[in-house]
Amino acid sequence: MDLSAETQTRKADHLRICLEEDVQFRQTTSGLERYRFVHCCLPELDLRDVDLTTHFLGKTLSSPLLISSMTGGTEQAEMINFRLAAIAQEYGLAMGVGSQRVAIEKPEVAKTFAIRSVAPDALLFANLGAVQLNYQYGIEQCRKVVDLLEADALVLHLNPMQECVQTKGDTNFRGLLEKIGRLCEKLPVPVIAKEVGNGISGIMAEKLIQIGVSAIDVAGAGGTSWAKVESERARDERQRRLGATFADWGLPTAECITSIRAIAPTIPLIASGGLRNGLDAAKAIALGANLAGMAMPFLQAARESEAALHNLVEILLAELAITLFCTGNATILDLQRSGVLQRQV
Predict the structure, then answer these.
(1) In whole angstroms, what is the distance from residue 304 CA to residue 184 CA?
(2) What pLDDT is attached to residue 8?
């Protein structure tokens, strides 16, 4: 099988496994369940006046929700991406796509990522694996994926554990920090550093910020375990065993948010990794995130129908609004400044 076909097959496997198999973290949680809001019995607000508007990387969003990076490169992925993009446009959400490496290797599938046509105003994030900068990728390929999506920013995803579990994974991460820094200088759009579900620590965030990364997506542990995904698609015992061993590896999402905010109070910050509803999103934002990213809930709804996606977003927005209302906060900024989120003892 040639490289491009192998990449496309892997993407199809990932999509199928995420939708059909149990690949969620079991022992490690997002950590958000350890926090609760102080209830306000008299908000002195009208629920209709709660405003979820926020700003990220210079763009105004109707709410602080991100449809996290997921998929692309196959017929099913194309359907899912276009459904998600239409929802992002309708509701003023941000959206990222899955790794576009497959579109570089197999240009005929580039159309599965060409979602700007249905999301002309949405905040869209292109996506490549950072490790590909050590495998003959450079500014040219990064520009290509940004141009293909007409993206507002490029996500460079960091996935050392996933690559190690894969039998033929790309495991040369040497010198990447310097290469990412050069890319940040040359690329015409902001660069976002994102994990894929094992988390970014405060120490690593500081290094990434120093070399010019414009935003960070913590993508902490607690949601989909990509070690488990790789274990499920294993063709040999080694990959199967490694995926099972490291199934719960990673830093909880809540811990990532607080540790990064302790050293970088102002860096644009996305919280993803195990968020499953609007209450989780509100907790992440109250902890210090600017956007709350979700993948699995959107993926499941997008596969089902456009109506299911509409229902999901309406519920998420209601959950966010009710959380603000019942903590006495009228805006996202109020929530971030209110101090109404408490860690349970």
Answers:
(1) 38
(2) 81
